[in-house]
Amino acid sequence: MARRGSYAKGIAKREEILTAALEVIARNGYRRTSVRELAEAVGLSQAGLLHYFSSKEELFQEVLRKRDEVDHDSYGVDMARPIDGLIAVIRHNADVPGLVQLYAQLSVEAVDPEHPSHDFFVERYESVRREFGEFIREEQRAGAIDPELDPDLTATLFVAASDGLQTQWMLDPSIDMSEHIMQLWRLVARKA
Amino acid sequence: MARRGSYAKGIAKREEILTAALEVIARNGYRRTSVRELAEAVGLSQAGLLHYFSSKEELFQEVLRKRDEVDHDSYGVDMARPIDGLIAVIRHNADVPGLVQLYAQLSVEAVDPEHPSHDFFVERYESVRREFGEFIREEQRAGAIDPELDPDLTATLFVAASDGLQTQWMLDPSIDMSEHIMQLWRLVARKA
DNA sequence: AATGAAAACCGAACGGGATATGGTTTCCGA
DNA sequence: TCGGAAACCATATCCCGTTCGGTTTTCATT
Q1: Which of A106, A180, B150, B177 has its CA 20 to 30 Å from the CA of residue B46?
Q2: CA dihedral in degrees (B159, B161, B165, B167; nearest 10)?
């Protein structure tokens, strides 16, 4: 049998790195977070840290992937409707500015097709739009949303609004992101 | 009298740099645009280029400021309604991906309060929201928009949607940004 | 038209960034 | 217990933005 996979110590260290990365980013901001700092935060050399992640960008991508998993478990499953999950996530995001900043930064950098996280984000957006679009179709069948509305277009709009609100919120934290999304939902939900 | 200000040659060179920066970004993407390349593109050394702009970030900010001026002159003045101006700008943006990328990148980096362009973006968003919010108030007075809608909230939503759509469009250029904004406008505009 | 001060520009160097290389040490299953 | 892979490090490399101390060019003043 070929020996493959990591040792127990390595698996724990990897998790520790992901957690520490978040703390460092939350404290210093994305721009001022270097692999040197990340390495120091977990008691490794730069090369030691890069043993776990082939690049800084891949490390960050893994942080976001893990966040997606946690969010999906917390707000995706037990929530009755995806819109409630979306609002819950957005509310939660206001408590983790480091993650929001990391996400905003990496998603924009990844528009470059050569960026290592390009495919990750392309697929992520596709799946988020697909899921939310499907939800809107359901609401239309249930009569809660105007059937004339294009569900895919509307889903894209929700995702866009969520992303754009984050930028404005980071520049001005007095902006209440969830309130704006609720307003958008009221706009698409049929009245009376 | 103290001699101050630039020579004719310098003023022309400065403009040339701003124009060339756009071309280089459009060709190489923001990530791969270095001051070395920028300098080569206009026949200067790195230090020579930095004589005009104290930093790379300041140069990029000036590119965006110039874009704002041009857009404002082109779509802000002669357009009847700001919403038409917004849609026209968004349509135009699809033809200048380099600018869109530069804007998206810099606006996110500038969320760091230490970033040299932080104040620029804070003020820019404030003024855009104020202008659009005022327009919405006018439409409400004219009876074109539900007076119950919070105009500032709605303005923020339009800005957020515009920004967020750009990210999705850069990742998937088949997305029609203007169509989505028109959809949003239909949602807020009173029907029948 | 000569002058001189500031603008325009350059070569070289600096500090810091991510990452590749070639190791040594530690782990742990066969 | 042993051997191979994982875990980890010191060092080196290359590119980045930026600084410093110049030289050359421009052009208002005289």
Answers
A1: A106
A2: 70
Q: What is the pLDDT of residues A90-136, one digit of tens each?
A: 999 999 999 999 999 999 999 999 999 999 999 999 999 999 999 99
- B145: closest chain A residue by CA: A187
**Token duo for residue B170:** 């850069």
**Phi and psi for B3 in degrees, rounded to 5?**
-80, 120
Cβ-defined contact of B168 to A160 (cutoff 8 Å): yes
Residue written as token pair 């992640």: A53
Which ranges in A142-176 belong to alpha helices (H)?
A: 151-171
Q: Distances in Å between the alpha carbon of B84 and those of B79, B89, B96, B152, B185?
A: 7, 9, 19, 18, 10
Contact across the interface for B160 and A159, Cβ inside 8 Å: no
- List, for residues B121-159, the tens digit of each pLDDT value: 999 999 999 999 999 999 999 999 999 999 999 999 999
User: What 3 state SS string does A23-68 have?
Assistant: HHHHHHCCCCCCHHHHHHHCCCCHHHHHCCCCCHHHHHHHHHHHHH
Nearest nucleotide to A14, CA against C1' atoms: D7
| Closest CA–CA distance from residue B160 to any residue of chain A (Å) | 4
Residue B111 CB contacts under 8 Å (≥ 6 apart), including other chains: A101, A104, A167, A170, A171, B118, B121
C-alpha span between B75 and B139 (Å, rounded): 19
- Mutation target for A interface from B152, B157, B177: give the one with most A CBs within 10 A: B157
| A144 DSSP assignment | S
Give yes or no for a contact between A49 and A42, defined as CB atoms under 8 angstroms apart. Answer: yes
Please compute the mean of the pLDDT values over residues B90-107 and round it to a whole number: 98
Give the CA B117 to C1' C1 distance in Å.
47
Whole-number pLDDT of residue A76: 84
- Which domains does chain B possess? 1-52 (1.10.10.60), 56-188 (1.10.357.10)
**At what angle are helices A151-171 and A177-188 packed, to 10 degrees?**
160
User: Does the beta-carbon distance from A31 to B115 stay under 8 Å?
Assistant: yes
